[in-house]
From TrEMBL:
The keyword Transmembrane helix applies. The lineage of its organism: Bacteria, Bacillati, Actinomycetota, Actinomycetes, Streptosporangiales. It comes from Actinomadura sediminis. This is Integral membrane protein. The chain crosses the membrane at residues 58-76, 88-106. Keywords: Membrane, Transmembrane, Transmembrane helix.
Length: 107
């Protein structure tokens, strides 16, 4: 089950990365790609620093990336450029639902 979770998390990360590479242009492209690339390592290091396992963080990251891909239609820049509070709220709500479902499935 954990290997499937890692695969889903990795696939979600790649889907968002592809959307960022395709959709973000101009001066925001470099920082957004760097931040997205650094996120998995930062989460692992944070969990190690705090002394907490990263299974919950992996579930949350997978849920966030797939919710972002669903809400924005694989174009993450829509969250900022044309999203507004409605799309942001949809992303957060869907993330919570997916994280809850994944947590119940894994545990």
């Amino acid at each position: 089950m954990v290997v499937a979770l890692w695969a889903l998390c990795g696939a979600g990360w790649v889907a968002v990365l592809a959307g960022l590479r395709r959709g973000v242009h101009g001066p925001a492209r470099g920082p957004s790609l760097f931040a997205h690339t650094a996120t998995p390592a930062a989460v692992v290091l944070l969990c190690a620093h705090v002394g907490h396992g990263n299974l919950y963080a992996t579930i949350w990251l997978a849920a966030q990336w797939w919710a972002l891909a669903i809400v924005t239609g694989l174009r993450p820049e829509r969250l900022v450029t044309s999203g507004g509070p409605r799309r942001l709220g949809g992303w957060l709500a869907l993330t919570a639902v997916l994280a809850f479902a994944a947590t119940r499935t894994v545990f």
